[in-house]
Design a protein that fits this description.
alpha/beta; Rossmann fold; Domain 2, N(10)-formyltetrahydrofolate synthetase; 12-stranded mixed beta sheet; hydrolase; one-carbon metabolism; nucleotide-binding
Length: about 950
Amino acid sequence: MSEANVAKVLSGTELSKETKIGLKKQTDALAEHFNGFKVHLVIVQVGGRDDSNVYIRQKIKSAAEVGVKASHIQYPKTITQTELLSEINKYNTDPSVHGIIVQMPLDCIENIDSHLITNAVSPEKDVDGLNIVNEGRVAIGDLTGLIPCTPNGVIQLIKRSGIEISGTRAVVLGRSKIVGAPVASLLLWHNATVTICHSKTKDIEKEVSKADILVVAIGKPEFVHGSWIKPGAVVIDCGINSLPDSSKKSGYRLVGDVHYTSASQIASAITPVPGGVGPMTVAMLLSNTVQAATKVANIIYKSQWNLGILPLKLQRPVPSDIEIARSQEPKNIMILAKEIGLQESEVILYGNKKAKICLSALDRLKNIKNGKYVVITGITPTSLGEGKSTTTVGLVQALAAHSKKNTIACLRQPSQGPTFGIKGGAAGGGYSQVIPMEDFNLHLTGDIHAVTAANNLMAAQIDTRMFHEATQKDQALYDRLVPTVNGVRKFSPIQLNRLKRLGINHTDPSKLTAEEIASFSRLNIDPNTITWNRVMDTNDRFLRKITVGQSPTEKNRTRQTCFDISVASEIMAILALAKDVKDLKERLSNIVVAQDINGKNVTADDLGMTGAMAVLLKDAINPTLVQTLEGTPVLVHAGPFANIAHGASSIVADLLASKLVGSDGFVVTEAGFGSDIGMEKFFNIKTRYSGLLPSTIVLVCTIRALRMHGGGAIHPNTSVTPEEKEEALSKGVENLQKHISNSVKYGIPVVVAINAMNADTENEWKIVRDASLQAGAIDAVVSTHWENGGSGAIKLAEAVISASQQPQEFKFLYDLNMPLQLKIETIAKEMYGAKSVEFNENILNKLNTYESKGYGKLPVCVAKTALSLSGDPNLKGVPTNFTLPIVDVYVSVGAGFVVTIAGEISKMPSLSTRPSIYDIDLNTETGEIIGLS
């Protein structure tokens, strides 16, 4: 042929550059559209072969060019097959890894099955395309998955030649699973007529001469000569071989499986060696990685869940809560977890109806914009409760199941104290409940027990440490605190922390002076300053004051102390306010349990407790996933009391939920009791630490409670005329208006939810609606979720969606730089309506001491009755001109707030004459729990 007819050179180098430019645009778009999303490839290598190292460096360089993070993980030659499989599985389950390749050949001492290894890589991350699943997809014509890299590069080069593959005759020389067989399949599914030739094929030259497209991957240098090739054929040479060549500095030259010089005179297009298929293999590897990552990103950032909704079978009259709960079979919790975008590795199953969610999901979802944040609060409640939890569940059912908005409810875990004492349950009610209801109310996944264990371990350590210090001399005490083990004596990490705080620079236990030994060993706790009590999750009034140390073995070292209920523990507040495990440990370490005889703080870290408590809480830090009656997701986590602590579910649950629902979704959380207690603490404590700002406040009220606040009877069966009811209601709405006033002070739109009851009238609802709008609420909606489930709260959901789109000018109630006394007065006057606040000299001295120790900039947590805006539970409606007495104050350094006790507040509730215990029982024949309501 003349020179004009020399074959077109199909440069893989040039095509790969163009491909990588396109891939860079894709990774840039992923980062832009998905808030900094980064594509991640892991390259696994066993041993350190020089040729493998060259290939790996090329892949890492190319990955950087297209914006892909490439991690080179190298294992020693001594690794076993089991160990390698275990390591690969780690990357399979790591959500930050999108592609995995295992560099072949394995340079190992042990006998490792390479096919087993390649098949161990998850098909979704197998960017080499060598997993049998991906090979099988290609074989059956499913080209939507990850296609083997070299075969895919071959197809791209053929397309580059300009030939129309469909209808051509293609011949493939070689049938390997890596190149030949998948290339043949790809050509077949591109509608070519394909012949595969191999070592047993007779008259290969004749078969080759028929080919419009010839792909050679036979592993023999210059095997195919130009005379074999059909004029004008497209030739793709996949081979790379070395031949001796003394003219080369290296002593060899690289050639393909085709005799390039002669073939290029016959073919219309041909790939060179090197610079042909090789560069395209790397480009296709990166293409697969970006493809896998894009799929993951689209799943993570998808705008709409596909929830399987559980239909309600509404009955009239409405059955008991437990009958309703048992009539609905929950979805398998793993199904729900996947529906809301969680990965299997992030879910720890507790049976098939509840699961812990690992905080690793937060890291995977960190680039997602937060959803809308809705907080539920209420008016001053009656002893019957006004249905905040029920409204929370009804609203999320309406949003998720009926309005098709990604929505998660975040609730506190109920304490068993009230469950067996007064409530009988706290899972919502009617057709707006959390299921499984029994699990929700009893134990759940054991978080409260973990808090109890951690709290009481600290209490035991305090008393035990005082005992040992009192009964041992300095050196003996030091020798026991820092023992010699197997001939080695060293400080533990937490003991090194104490040395650092004391200003002792030695890390060798033998180097301390006698004075330093005494300083290190003796905490010198002043028993009169101990603020750390034991706890239990049971109402027991007789533990409000106890004496410990009465056994003869304690050598008359007795002291008075008490038990609190577990949910009043500072550890519970810490669990609720920690943003991650690191933050949890830091807060635990900062807990102040007492002062020493010189007035200095004694902390959990001084007692060596930080790590031990963190271990007890390592599972409790993970939120629990359950569901509503309609199959919508609920995260249950932490349970601090609202009148004693800050009364809100955990920050980590809210953060996780905000990422899972996405920017167009909703997170609905509840603040305990009314706006004066739970909501105030929610904003001024929880929001400061979480950084999450609500878009809407939902204020729950009932006609029944508002009548009571107006002087009317609380029980609907009391004989009064409709006119008398409306008169009482018209007076009682002042309480609602005060709570609306409290809410609007934060600059967040307020929606009033009227929790409807059978005894209500249309005119009563109108009175409440008019009063609500007059006080500054943007809407007031009657909701029948108790009897109708989510469908009864659709109008409430619509109001919340509308409110969330309103402009907001959020502001805190007080500045953290204000003195503690002024913060307390601001809360009392602005939220409660107090005329003044009463501080005795002891309280003022404590506040001054806290400020001198650096606690003055902490937020304040006021513990007061929930049954009145004042400190007196008997004052209903909107009390005025009252003085709020502050009877005690202490600091929860780990939780991060100063607690003030206003009026009569007990941290250990009691059982009534007839507690709910009488109604709760176990059916021994069915195993069902009876009496929860």
